[in-house]
Amino acid sequence: MQRQATLNGYVRSAVNCPERVALSSEDDVINANLAQYSQFQINLQTPVLDPKRCQLIRATIPNVQLQLPDWGGLCFFYWSLATATTVPTISNLRAIRLYPSYYIAPSGHTAFIRNRYISDPSDLVTLLNQAAGVAGDSATYNPYWVVSDVTFAYDTTKKQITFMGNTASTFYAPIGYNDAILATVLNGTAASLIKMPNANNIANLTLQPQVAQYTLNLRVGYAMSGTSRGIQSFAVGQAAYADITNVAFANAVTVPVDSFPNLVYTNTVSLYLSFLGGASVTSNNRHNLLAVVPVQSGSLAVNNYITATSNLLTRLSQTISNITVEMVDDANMPYLLPDSATTTIELSFSYQDKNF
To answer: Is the pLDDT of residue 228 over 70?
Structure first.
């Protein structure tokens, strides 16, 4: 009689060696007390034993996202300068900001504009001008906001968004995402931070969500770093003036833009699985990567990705009794979904032998 193979106390059988495993966030065991999820854990009633190869077959991931992420990058930063050659300090920094879409205001607080569904670049310009205009914000909570100081416009021929300043005898330039002065605002070390009054306790202010090197400038199309030369600067001006010419522009003059509007929440969703160990690594030194799934659906639709090629991972745990799936976006931020949106991951396993 053939002896049954065992591993870690389990008897190997066909049940322990499935060739396909489907994981659904509906069967998650860890997120019942959370409003949203970016990862879920599945406890397998029968563990997978001694798999040798694994790959993604299919990923069905709802794109329940707005075009602009709420986790940060909702502030457009620019310089307001006394002259065309003023060396900027934090006193010259200005910001137009959108509140996160989930924000609930306390009674009496009406001076704010939320992030929302944006249909096209022209719609984004409408939102930006609302945020820049009367009742668009409050200097009490955003010390870098000056009412009606700038105006945004969309050129339907060039497909670009630009801005210009409105205050007489003032010069304007965008701030680069990598600017050292801006970093003191983005990383939370500035004396005056951009805040939000809370609905339940107005005295207990919440900080505007910010992530280093992510600003609304990038989404609008002012994509320069603030530490590099523009291709039309010809060594004139300051790199801190983060436009294509490195020049500050007088009021009523359009500040030239270097790129195009970006209304794609994320290009990809990266999937990480707990049992992959050293099977993969990313350029930002994250391990356990299963696959980078391209997002091919529009906002508020379902992204369905089928793996086109075989790309087997071989460094796997010998015994897989639970699996944690983690999802992150292009910025390595959690790809958050509501509990009403179900994520399904289909995996393929293969084994060296099936002597059971």
So the answer is: yes
Which residue is it, tokens 């009633």?
45
Tokens of 19: 């060739």
Q: How far is CA 86 from CA 181, 238, 249, 256, in A?
A: 15, 9, 12, 19
Residue 287 CA to residue 258 CA, distance in Å, equals 35
- Residues 37, 31: Cα–Cα separation, whole Å: 7
Structure confidence by residue, pLDDT tens digits, 154-163: 999 999 999 9
Domain boundaries, the chain: 6-65+265-350, 66-263
Report which DSSP code applies to 5. Answer: P
Name the nearest CA neighbour of 216 among 166, 173, 175. Answer: 175
Residue 221 DSSP symbol: T
Q: How many residues in the chain? A: 356
22 neighbors 322 (Cβ within 8 angstroms): no
pLDDT digits (tens, 9 = 90+) for 252-264: 999 999 999 999 9
DSSP lists the bridge partners of residue 303 as 61
CATH 2.60.120.1100 fits 6-65+265-350, yes or no: yes
**56 closest CA partner among 290, 275, 279:** 290
